[in-house]
Amino acid sequence: MSAIARRIAFLSVLAGAVFACSSDSDAPPSAPSGGSSATAGTGAVPSASGAGGSAAGTSAGGSVSGGPSGGTGAGGSSAGGAGTNAGGESAGAAGANMAGAAGSGGGGFWGQAGPKKQYACPAGPFPEQSLGQAETVCEGFDYAYNYLEGPTWIATEGAFFFSNFPIGQYTGGDIIKFTPGGDCEVWLEDVGCNGLGFSPSGNLLAACQGPRAVMEYDVKTKQGRTIATMADGKMLDSPNDLIARSDGNVYFSNRTAELGNRPKGLGEGLVRIDPLGAISVIQMGGLNGVALSPDETKLHVVKMGTWTLDAAGLPGQKGGPTPEGDGVAVDCAGNITWNGTNSAFGGADLKTLFIVGPGTETHTRSATVPGIP
Fold first, then answer.
1. 164 and 287 housed in the same domain
2. Same domain? 59 vs 141
3. 3-state DSSP call for residue 14?
């Protein structure tokens, strides 16, 4: 090889080395698999590579972590940008303490399969609602605490779930499972929850005074996931009752009854979680149980009133009945019933009304009109 050729070859190798060094120094550090990135404050969050893929976004007052379900805001609000999650591409949405979207395929906040509905009321007209004699269930069951609340029916499990906790306190509290024709059993210990419901992802949704949060529990693994801990920039107090619409909207009452000696947060009010996980306050003031009409166009709130909901689940005009009592159930004819501390329809034909309270009483009543779990 001539001297000129050797010199050209040397310069080519040198240029490649300089380019490689420049590229390495400019590359952002990668996060460990399943790890997290970003810290409190505002500004761009570096891409976080987690088990579920990468997600990009901004964080305000909290951290964003990459994981199986994308970005999760903790301790503040997070606004996720376009990110690649387990299921594909998804767009993040602003909200307080919201979990990242699961991916494409219509899943969004509530999972890849999208929101699920576990009941469908038959077409009317319906006969007059009539309830049969009360039948005591779970007789002799040894409850750990003095109060029962929040029953709901989970069709995939063929069972009712309800809460047992010490009234007026935030420590302690179990979730109990009752299988019609069978027994009661402690399903999950020491979670401190009140009202329960069927979540849009097909699991158990819970308003929990212990963690001051709306939680979701996988009905198979019992694994918990935090849905919301803040609203309007303030901590929740003791979430009390909730209901989910089949399109992914969730409405819950935030109360202070089981706040105890902890610092006050938002105060009593009605709160909405939209299908993308964004959280907003509908109205402040005293309230209790919440329920939906069979066609999901009316939101009934004990002591607060009834709202008409639009196609997106936004509350509009307020009017109609103002339910009384504690928790309420609604049948397929739209009748609002109040029994015990709370009640829910269930069973294979949705004609079993399961009633809990007062105290630790539990019983069922047959119904002529089916109702909403």
1. yes
2. no
3. helix
pTM, two decimals, is 0.73
- Bridge partners (DSSP) listed for residue 299: 292, 307
Q: Which two tokens stand for residue 191?
A: 């979670």
- 363: its two tokens: 């019983």
Is residue 296 exposed (0-12), middle (13-18) or buried (19+ Cβ within 10 Å)? middle
Q: CA–CA distance from 119 to each of 156, 191, 347 (Å)?
A: 11, 27, 11
* Structure-block tokens of residue 184: 């009661």
Counting the structural domains of the chain, the total is 2
Does residue 345 sit in the same domain as residue 242?
yes
In a domain, 303, yes or no: yes
The boundaries of the domain holding residue 62 are 36-110
User: pLDDT of the chain along its 373 residues, tens only?
Assistant: 544 444 444 434 334 433 333 333 333 333 333 333 333 333 332 233 333 333 333 333 333 233 333 333 333 333 333 333 333 323 333 333 333 333 333 457 898 667 888 888 999 999 999 999 999 999 999 999 999 999 999 999 999 999 999 999 999 999 999 999 999 999 999 999 999 999 999 999 999 999 999 999 999 999 999 999 999 999 999 999 999 999 999 999 999 999 999 999 999 999 999 999 999 999 999 999 999 999 999 999 999 999 999 999 999 999 989 999 999 999 999 999 999 999 999 999 999 999 999 999 999 999 999 999 9
Verify that 358 and 248 share a domain, yes or no. Answer: yes
